[in-house]
Amino acid sequence: MTGLLSNGFFLLLVKVYGAFLILGPILLRIQFRFNAKLNPQLVPVESLPPDVQQFMAPRVQSIAGLGFEPVGYVNLGKMTSGTGSFMALFSNPRTSEWADVSVVKSATRMAGYIEFITRCSDDAQVDTNTNSTPSVLFPLPSYHVFRFPQVKDAFTLYRAHRMLVQEKIGGSKPVLPPHGQELAELKRRLERYGPRQQERGYMYLDKSGDYFHLTWKGAILGAWRSVWPVSSLRRWWMQSREQDRLRSLGVAQYRPS
């Protein structure tokens, strides 16, 4: 009897999991949309949600200590459906690099990270950040993204970033927009995401021209990569691979004095 109950429970779990694999892409395709026309706005820090301010404060201070100059706090609005996005944006005229503290907030959770970006052209860019979530869609071959959620301080992350820039695009010259044009460049950079996913068949622009939606290819890939245990395995693999990368760079055990 116990065996029959166990088998029945197992079969039920398999059916539920199978139903999720089928329904997940359908629901994701219905719900997901990416704003094609972003309108980032500089805002006072006091206008940010309190938990966003609390997350940003120590990280903003640590980035400023590395010689980056604040551009300002940015409200990015609803980049994707059901979320609000915020950023503390920095630039470094001496090294022609970007830095930011980014936060994405929904009704149920908040996720944030710091990142450094060196851009030489649309086809040569290195982005080093502490985002703990692997990308679920199409990575661009010349857009090098390194995620180190295990790094807890900006100095260590920046040290790794400089080494990765030298490794990936060492001979290229970084570029920054003229002073006062940082927000326009940020808008342009963020709005490249949708068209590039469309080129790979993961998104399409709706008739209004306002939103990108997932194709069936994008919805299936996004949903299946986000389901357990695939999501956990991908996160483990990313952190294990990047830990090896940090070790090879000689910064895995570094701690600021």
Task: Describe this structure as you would to a colleague.
The chain is of the alpha+beta class. The protein has one domain. The protein is built from 7 helices and 10 strands. The strands form 2 sheets. It has a 7-stranded mixed sheet. β3 and β4 form a beta hairpin. α1 packs across α6. The chain is globular, with a radius of gyration of 20 Å. The mean pLDDT is 87.
Keywords:
alpha+beta; single chain; 7-stranded mixed beta sheet; 7 helices; 25% strand; 42% helix; 257 residues
Provide a compact summary of the structure:
The chain has helices spanning 2-31, 50-64, 154-169, 182-191, 193-199, 216-226, 230-249, and strands at 34-35, 41-43, 69-77, 83-92, 97-106, 110-121, 124-129, 143-147, 203-205, 211-214.
SSE layout:
Layout: H1 2-31, E1 34-35, E2 41-43, H2 50-64, E3 69-77, E4 83-92, E5 97-106, E6 110-121, E7 124-129, E8 143-147, H3 154-169, H4 182-191, H5 193-199, E9 203-205, E10 211-214, H6 216-226, H7 230-249
Parallel strand pairs: 7-8
Antiparallel strand pairs: 1-10, 2-3, 3-4, 4-5, 5-6, 6-7, 9-10
Helix pairs in contact: 1-6
